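Entry 14. Structure prediction run on the chain below.
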Amino acid sequence: MKKITKFLSFKVSLWILILLVVISIGFYIYGNINAISSGTKSSYSMVQSIEKVNEQVFLNVGIATVISSSEHTEFPLTKIKIPLTEKKALIVVNYKAKLGIKKSVKIEMKKEQEYKIIVPKYEVIGISLDKDNPYKVYDNSGDILSYSTKDIDTGELVTDELSDEMQNKYLKEYKTQMDESAKEYYETLFKAVDTENKVEVVFE
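Output returned:
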């Protein structure tokens, strides 16, 4: 009977020891999980340049451009296209171009209450894709043997369309509207100071 009691008391002590070990392991794991989940993230920024600008937008142009592109596989060492290897893409890009000036205007006083405003050359100030429908791929297909033809990079097509070089054509196309907008802007600005002010607006 004493042996049984001794064995049971030993068994209880062993279970208590096991329970303490399990609890200790649990706290250890919990602590490590918290340490991982409460880790910090930091980033550092350095200002490389600060530029003072005198931008003035005279026209916002909403543009929808249809871009088509195609690729073929050619016979080696030639410019001859292999039949049925064409891949093509058709994309519509919707964006807004801001046209105006980035440099300050020159102001000359001709005589009292008469001013001459010299507007610098127009530039593309910025472009932004339409928030709701920036661009859509309407066709991105290939002929039966086009598996070896290079894929068309639709993202690159969009980037090329939004380049300043491509936007410069709108500076010529909408020059008349920008001239009118600039004249109205500076006449309103100077007459707000004094209604007797007279303004002549010329363009470089």
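Residues 1-12, 35-39 have pLDDT under 50 and may be disordered.
Filed with the rest of this week's runs.
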